[in-house]
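Box 3.1. Reading complex inputs
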Amino acid sequence: MKQLKEFSLSAGKSILTWKALSSFLSLVAVLAFFYWQVGDILFNKSIIRGSLLDLGVNWAIVAMPVAMLMISGEFDLSVGSVYALAAGGIFKLFQIGLHPLLSFVIIIVACSLIGLLHASITLKLGIPSFITTLAGMWFWRSVVNAMWSYTPTAPADAINYFDNVFGVRMGGGWFYSKFLFLIAIFVILWIVLERTPFGNSIFAAGGNFEAALARGSKPQRTKMIMFILTSTLAGFAGIVSATSAGATMTNTAMGLELYMIAAAVIGGASLTGGVGTVEGAFIGTFLLRYINTGVIQMGIESKWFQGIVGVVLLLAAVLNRNFRNKVIRRFT
Amino acid sequence: MSDNNLLHCENIHKYFGQVHALEGVDFDVGQPEVVGLVGDNGAGKSTLIKCICGIFQPTKGEIHFKGEEKEFTTPQESLQAGIESIQQDQALVEDMDIKRNFFLGREPKNSLGLLDLKEMRQASMDGLSDMGLEIRSPDVNVRELSGGQRQGIAIARALHFNFDLIILDEPTNNLSIKESKKVYEYIQQLKQNGLSAILISHAIQEVYPVSDRIVVLRNGEKIIDQDREEVEMEEVEKAIVGGEGDEDLEHLLL
């Protein structure tokens, strides 16, 4: 009995001090609200698979590294453009007739080099990453536009090559196989951030750069790796998106960068660095997707999506700032 | 000064362009010994310390550490040799908890290459309680701690990693009297463990209570280097700003 009490006490403590708690509560609140409004229409197979877990998976693959990059004290506003560039770029390579796998490798390497470029300009020239990646956002979008007039096309067999990997219906039709990739990426990134020395250096780089430098924790290198990882996963998500949907457009993922920052902030990340979680960004992404799906099902004009996202973002920020700190002070 | 001093700096010169910031300073730290290094702004004390920490390289002169001549070209080299410099605002990451701060840059790993959190908790708590620093949990964020507790953690960390020489920049700046006393106790602990420390300040009052020896720099030159018992606090105070001039001023004012 005593053990049970101790266990529930420590379990309660870990839940209350969980850094992504407010994003989780927000998700529950939004789910409850939509259930109350439209009932279980939002919880059937085709909605979950088609609306929530399709675009949601692509987004979450980007949101998690964006959150980690923010923890290390940097932004990446170019993820939407890199995502579209990877999607359009791999279609171009399919058209030329390169092997799908080779095309994949080329695009992934190219995206990581874009990350390296953004990192080098930011860190070596001392330009804030907000500026560097804003420039990148416009530049890479222009490259996509220059490459395609409007809608990139590609031979179906090359697209199917990947659709057979990412787009297989699984779990009795509840999700596509790309969801498993997302889970794998989530687990790896979570372990990297929370359980490795490198993760410690991510928090330190954004929390107190000078202290990290003085302790020999190599914050410059850490930020460099995070820029590369973010661009690489944005590119990966773009490939997954294009090949599982069978299509992409030149304006694909326009504005994605701000949704990713919103997801990270809802998940507890701070704009000044040093604070945040991978699981929070994960939850935050699906929260955004669910709001989108919900407003459509409720029959509200979908233009209200952005308005609701704005309100939820503010609520989450207030919760994180005022509620969380008090709870943590009380329970650690 | 004897050869078996921990740190021996000989005839250190440092130019910044035409500015002669250090004009042939000899500076020694024994083992164990607490040296108070004082001087006004621009006296050269931080230039000297930066030479010892590998942030600057002296234009001329030699630095010996543990009996060997050293040329530190980066802070990492001086850190690896066993010199730890603690700047109040650069010591800890506020949004990280105590255990993660304690091991930042030197994290213990388990067989999978992951953080050994158990060891981090245990060792950081042991380190703190050895110094008489009572903190309820190693999972507390540094942001929640007072200035004195933060200094305590930085010092406990230096003790844990067996540094030979710890440099504390204005160790009790912005601290209450009670907290300052605590920090002096931590510094005494360092010495009892056989470690040495340099305390840097522009105010002699800050370092006098715990220093074994007082060194005063003025305009890039060493003007006082004496055991604390042999020197009065007022004398040092006058030396820091340039005694004679002030006396004249006092006469005029009186």
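In summary: The domain at 7-91+163-253 of chain B is CATH 3.40.50.300 (Rossmann fold).
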